[in-house]
Amino acid sequence: MNIHEYQAKGLFAQYDVKTLRGIVASNSTEAAEACKELGGKIWVVKAQVHAGGRGKGGGIILCRSPDEVYEAAGKLIGSRLITPQTTAEGVEVRKIYVEEGCNISRELYLGIVLDRERDLPVIMASTEGGVEIEEVANKNPEKILKVHIDPITGLGDWQARKIAFGLGLKGNQIKHCAKFMKSLYHLFVNLDCSIVEINPLVVSSDDEIIALDAKINFDSSGLFRHNEIEELRDVSEEEPLETRANKVGLNYIKLNGEIGCMVNGAGLAMATMDIIKLHGGEPANFLDVGGGADSKQVAEGFKVILSDPEVKAIFVNIFGGIMRCDFIAEGIITAAKEINMAVPLIVRLAGTNVELGKQMLSESGLNLISADNMNDGAIKAINSIGGKA
Question: Mean pLDDT throughout 223-232?
């Protein structure tokens, strides 16, 4: 789950991670009032969207008067911001963040992520602040510092200083940076984050270390422990079909293909997408109904898949263990009665109550294509939409 910059900075403040003062606004009048409340002579108006690269898309504007702030807010709010991380249509800007100015001495990069190969959190830092870290990794990988952290002992003072030295910091900057990183790591662990990223992290003219930007992504599996974080969710920034599926407990991710997939188990779902691509097709989604779904959830899953206008066929690939095949069959039948199943339906069932499930489907009168196994199902799904597998 993602949140906006202003929300992330609110969490930073709770963990004593230094940021600049700022005020969120939803119209030009609020923005102009915000700069008066903040004081100073320079302000930065920032579009609040769940996408990086805002500066490249014109979503960050430096202003030197309340009138300029007013105009910048009017320009951004209601517009569609296109950045390197959005689609060609861009994303709508509904709010902006007015932040006080800062005398910047240096721009750095700092992030904490999970290294899934080593099963450890890793702090990544670079002197190339303001540049996308992927670009640095491709062109100058030697400029990325990495320090892995043992979750048992936490981030040590020596590790924090090692990064500070590696960034070329001196004097009080080292002390401030070490304190900053320890606070940031504390936030990362306590809030079940999957990513915390600051780009740029700046060194001010008075040697303070300040988060000029803030990006936090949370592990959705840990949100049950953090109701206060769940409340920060902005569904207007999320894919509507993913939000709809999430409300009924389904794991759904929209993709760009034409073959809708309904599978039980994340591993089998990924294997199903792989085998569709292996035979020249493109999956339209990832959908894991899990082991505890009932027929109503399965029916809702079908509705979500068919709400995607790009879907031209559906491949149901179920290995019944905890999830019984008759539940899947009942869900398919329920969905077919409620909506127009106007695309080819390819079904592969195996496992618990498979014969009962097949019998229910055969007696339902539905027009479906039976598959003997996963490979057979993928080929039949591709062929059903005029492809050649």
Answer: 90
Is the Cβ–Cβ distance between 206 and 218 less than 8 Å? no
Paired tokens of 94: 């509904």
Got the DSSP string for 247-303? Answer: HTT-EEEE-SSSEEEEESSHHHHHHHHHHHHHTT--BSEEEE--SS--HHHHHHHHH
pLDDT category at 293 given cuts 50, 70, 90 is: low
pLDDT over threshold 90, residue 315 = yes
Question: Catalytic site residues?
Answer: 109, 197
Alpha-carbon gap, residue 126 to 107, rounded angstroms: 9
| Interatomic CA distance for residues 123 and 148, integer angstroms | 6
Residue 354 pLDDT exceeds 80: yes
**In 3D, which of 41, 47, 70 has the Cα closest to residue 59?**
47
Query: Exposed/middle/buried for 227, CB within 10 Å: 0-12, 13-18, 19+?
Result: exposed
3-state secondary structure at position 60: strand
Separation CA 27–CA 70 (nearest Å): 8
> Against a cut of 0.85, is the pTM above it?
no
Beginning with the edge strand found earlier in the chain, give each strand of the sheet holding 22-25 in spatial order: 22-25, 96-100, 43-47, 60-63
